[in-house]
Amino acid sequence: MQRREFIKTTAASAAVAMTAGVTAACATQVPGGVIVPFAAPTVNAPTVVGQAQPTFDWQMAVNFPVTLDTLFGGAQSFAERVSALTKGNLKITPHPPGQVAPGTPVLDAVSQGIVPIGYTSSFYYISKSPVLGFGTAMPFGLTAQQQNAWLYQGGGLAMLQEYYRNKFGVIQFPAGNTGVQMGGWFRKEIQTVADLQGLKMRIPGLGGQVMTKLGVTTTTTAGDQLLQALQSGELDAAEWTGPYDDEKLGLYQAASYYYYPAWWEPGSTVEIEVNLKQWNELPAEYQAAVQSAAAEANIRTLSVYEARNAMALPKLVADGVQLRPFSKEILNAAQTATNQLFEEFSAKDSDFKTMLREWTKFRDAVRAWNKVNELSYTSFVYGVE
Fold first, then answer.
1. pLDDT, tens digit, for every residue of 302-350?
2. What range defines the domain where residue 281 resides?
């Protein structure tokens, strides 16, 4: 892709553009040719008329192990819903890491056509471009509700889909969100920026690059290897998602201090990625099914996390886990480093600069609104002065 401004519209016009064709998460055609986006995903199976529709048997590469029934389960529920909506004509089989694309990252496997579809988080691939951070979460960025608003109504999905098409030959759709994550497990207390110096921590994405600026040595160790890495001393700290998943991984067995919040992942999106060539071979009804199933998975995954994390956290505390908030010193330093990082990327990458500009406009507007509605409400009911 040549370096250029790949979006020349404002956030408002991009939001309109995202409703056209395959970029609409859920839309309907009305008389006069106007496309009207729905507020919620379509739940009825598309009607197939005329001759029998073709069948497809797709293998899906999933970035997460089977043991994580939240994330791998999200891929499964998506696949089951697609099958139901297409009356079994589009069969998708999820596979854990290494089964269908050994040694090949999910985005590369889909882009290269090794598999037609994948389920992953885009920030694992920021070495290709920092633009991919926007697809998952940006440090000190948007909450889950704000992220969905930006993607579906603020032009974010349209911009990302254009970038994926041009750069990777892939089309992607939001298909899950974790909500605000926890800040991770530490083997010792962390109070100051000085305490971070020299720590070895598992943390991916742009958050990992911010931590590097604060003196942390970062890795992207796989989730099912974290417990052993903490126990052996290979890692001093590790973050995954939140109480439910972290308990399943057993991280509390190797580190006692559980910090919050994950300022680097305030509302992390998981996405479906489809090889563009194979996407274009699908009948329109099947494309609509994939989009609806992805939107449903997006809602379901967030709901699962909110419910299960609420039950898991008290259990961890009862077992002796020490909950700790990140200090204001660390948060302030991390936010300053984040802004510096964004400036550096913008100076080198025009695509990032364009995306950041539109994302920032939306972030500032939605935060101003949420200060009036959500912050005032939650501050009162949570007893926060």
1. 999 999 999 999 999 999 999 999 999 999 999 999 999 999 999 999 9
2. 11-27+54-177+266-308
Helices (H), 224-283: 226-232, 243-249, 276-280
92: left (phi over 0), alpha (psi -120 to 50) or beta: beta
In a domain, 251, yes or no: no
> What pLDDT shows up at residue 38?
30
Residue 286 lies in a domain: yes
Where do we find the tokens 């890795």? 219
Q: Which secondary structure element, helix H or strand E, spans residue 318, and what is its range?
A: helix 284-318
Burial per residue of 101-125, b for 16 or more beta-carbon CB atoms within 10 angstroms, e otherwise: beebbbbbbbbeebbbbbbbbbbbb
User: In the structure encoding, which two tokens stand for residue 197, read together?
Assistant: 């110096």
Q: For the domain that residue 137 is a member of, what is the CATH number?
A: 3.40.190.170
Average pLDDT, the chain: 89
Give the pLDDT of residue 52. Answer: 79
- The conformation of residue 88, written as its DSSP 8-state character, comes to T
Q: What is the pLDDT of residues 183-209, one digit of tens each?
A: 999 999 999 999 999 999 999 999 999
User: What contacts 365, CB < 8 A, 6 or more positions away?
Assistant: none
Considering its fold, how many domains does the chain have in total?
Answer: 1
Question: Quick one: 40 exposed, middle or buried, by C-beta within 10 A (0-12, 13-18, 19+)?
Answer: exposed
In a domain, 32, yes or no: no
203 is a domain residue:
no
- The strand pair at 217-219 and 257-260 is best described as unpaired
Model confidence over 67-122: pLDDT tens digits?
999 999 999 999 999 999 999 999 999 999 999 999 899 999 999 999 999 999 99
Write down the pTM of the prediction: 0.85
Give the β-pairing of 90-95 and 56-62. Answer: parallel
